[in-house]
Design brief:
Helix 2 (about 20-40) packs antiparallel against helix 4. This protein starts with a helix and ends with a strand. A two-stranded antiparallel ribbon has the order 1-2. Strands 3-4 form a two-stranded antiparallel sheet. With about 130 residues, it is of the alpha+beta class. The chain has 2 domains: about 1-90, no CATH class; about 90-128. The protein has helices spanning about 1-10, 20-40, 50-55, 55-65, 70-90; strands spanning about 90-95, 105, 110-115, 125.
Amino acid sequence: MFSKIGNWLRNFMLGRYGSDQLNLALLGLGIVMIVLGAVLSPLYTWAAMFNLLCYIPLIWCIFRMYSRNIAARRRENLAFLGFFQRLKDREHRYYRCPKCGQQVRVPRGRGKINIRCPRCSEQFVRNS
C-alpha cells in the first residue's frame, strides 16, 4: 500500500520544481510568523494579523514547489542566493554598468577607481 502511495507521489512530482533554498527560507519565515502570532496575539490586538500574514510565505512556498515553470523558479532562487552572497561578501563592492547594466565586482577600500565594464568596455569612476 505504501509503495503505491510513493509511486503516485513520485509520478505527481515529475516535471515539477521541488524545494530549494528560497523555499526553505519562506517556510522558516512562515513558521516564525506563526510563533510570533501565537505569542503576541494574547498581548496585543494588532498581533492577530500575524496569523493571517503567515499564510503568504507558506502559500508562495507551496506554489513554487509545485510549479512546472522550472526556469523561472531557478531564476528566483539565483536572485535570492545572489542577494545574500552580496551581503556576506565584505571584500568587494558591486556596481552596475551605466551603459549595459552588467554587474561589476571591484575590490573594497581602494578609493576612487576607474572601472571598465567587461561586456561593453564602458569606463566609469566610482568610489570603492
